[in-house]
Amino acid sequence: MSFIIKPDTSYYMINNQAPVVMPNIELSNGYIHIIGETLVPITYTSYQWLEQHPGLSIFRTLMDETGLWESIDINFKDKSIKSRPITLLVEPDSVYHKYDIHSFDDLAELISPDNSDYTSTTNPLYNYAGYHILVGTMFLNDFVENEPTNYLTYSEIPLGINGRGLDIMINKGKEVFDTIVNQGDTTFIDYVGFYYDESNIITQSGAIHFIDHILRQHKPSRSVKNFHFWEDPLLSEYRELNDPGEYVIEDTSWLDVITWSGTDLILVLTGDAESSGAWNGDYLLMNGDFVISYTFPKIIPGKYEAFLGAETFNSENALVEVYIDGKKAGGLINLASGSGDPFERIELGTINFLKYEEHTFEIRTLIPGRLAWDYIRFEPV
Question: Structure pTM?
Answer without folding.
Answer: 0.70
